[in-house]
Design goal:
- By secondary structure, the protein is mostly helical.
- Among the domains are: 79 residues, Arc Repressor Mutant, subunit A; 103 residues.
- Helix content is 68%, strand content 10%.
- The protein has a three-stranded antiparallel β-sheet. Strands 5-4-6 form a three-stranded antiparallel β-sheet.
- β4 and β5 form a beta hairpin.
- The longest helix has 106 residues.
- The termini are far apart.
- About 9% of the residues have low confidence.
Length: 261
Amino acid sequence: MLKKFLKEVITIVVGKQAEGIVELLISERYVNEFLIAKKMDLTINQTRNILYKISDYGLVSSTRKKDKKKGWYTYSWKIEILKSLLFLRNDLIKKISQINNQINSRETKQFYVCERCNIEINEENAMLYDFTCKECGDIFVLKNNEKFLKDIRRNLSRLNRELGLIDEEIEKQRIKMDKKKMRELKKQEKIKSAARKKASAIRKATKKKSAKKVVKDKSSKKTKSVVKVKKPVKKKLIKKKVVKKKLSKKVKKPVKKKGKK
């Protein structure tokens, strides 16, 4: 049913000859325009003309990629299903409105017809021409609208049924899109939570490193202060020993020399 509706859209926009493009563009992935041209047995320019006409109504989306060797851009295309269904819905609503106006006009007004020329005019114009056909001169005959109203009402009921089916398909596509959005949001939330965890782990690691550095700095300061205290003590001890030696030398009794007899 979905493909049928999309083909109707393409027929309205481009023509019956291009409805085969729906089979290629209905995929969720973008399709390369050269592949589309090959599948449809068209030239690339003919294919692009069709795609550009559909694009003017906003019913397709595209992505482009640059060919590194040749330097030009190649486009890939995908049909916008929800937008296409809404476009078809609006077109049906217009047709239904026109038919309702016709029914109202046929039920409230009288119409005349020339049976020879098969020309139909309303009552006002018939009075202007004195109920005489300008083409053949025959008299206009009052038209019986019962058959016409029966046919047009049958057409109206068919369009209303089709509108109901389109509304159901639109609802399905909206639910599908909502689910897709939810999946994308969940995916983004997972990525964000993983990034937050990574950032917190990095912060913890940096805090641990900074704490270790502080401990090392404190310990190094303590060792340096101990060394500074010990060094002068050693020097003082050495000085005392030297002083003792000097004193001991001074205290020694002089040796008596033997005098002459």
